[in-house]
TrEMBL record:
Pfam family for this entry, one: Response_reg
Response regulatory domain location: 11-127
Residues bearing PTM 4-aspartylphosphate: 62
Family annotation (PANTHER family): TWO-COMPONENT RESPONSE REGULATOR (PTHR43214)
SMART domains listed in its UniProt record: REC
Protein name listed in UniProt: Response regulator
Alphabetized InterPro entries for the sequence: CheY-like_superfamily, Sig_transdc_resp-reg_receiver, WalR-like
Record keywords, A-Z: DNA-binding, Phosphoprotein
GO biological process: phosphorelay signal transduction system
Record GO terms (molecular function): DNA binding
Species of provenance: Paraburkholderia elongata
Keyword field contains Glycoprotein: no
UniProt entry tagged with the keyword DNA-binding: yes
Length: 140
């Protein structure tokens, strides 16, 4: 985690079946100030359990997972954990996949190849907004 002691970190859960990619995601996202990687999974069932157990604020998920797709995870989040921000980060980034994921409950959708930095910037923005809200709450 990379945050100050008085700031609650943005808890990020990673769902990616390729270990080297998941490691890269953990390194990049975990280096963002105010972000903590709280868990990882390769498939949607384990991810839903882990997200609930860790109290994750954000889930970053690939479209294709071990034994399924992100769609099961997005539907599960929409039904039981609607406060979790879902970010799809995938190589399968056609307009059809983008629309399907957003319709299933994803708040963000990025192409792994061309928009990885944009995904990092989005997580940075979410973490900073969370920090600003926390500071505003403690001032009043």
């Amino acid at each position: 985690m990379n945050s100050s002691p008085n700031q609650q970190a943005l808890r990020v859960f990673l769902v990616e079946d390729a270990i080297p990619i998941r490691q890269r995601m953990a390194a990049r996202f975990g280096a963002i100030n105010g972000v903590e990687i709280v868990g990882e999974a390769e498939e949607s069932g384990a991810a839903l359990t882990g997200i609930g157990t860790t109290g994750a604020d954000v889930v970053v998920v690939d479209l294709r997972l071990t034994g399924g797709t992100a769609m099961e995870l997005l539907h599960g989040l929409a039904q039981g954990m609607s406060s979790v921000i879902a970010i799809v980060l995938t190589n399968h980034s056609s307009a059809w996949f983008r629309q399907a994921c957003l319709a299933a409950g994803a708040q963000y959708f990025f192409d792994k190849t061309s928009e990885f930095d944009l995904a990092c910037n989005t997580i940075t923005r979410i973490a900073h907004e969370r920090c600003a809200r926390g500071l505003n709450y403690s001032i009043t």
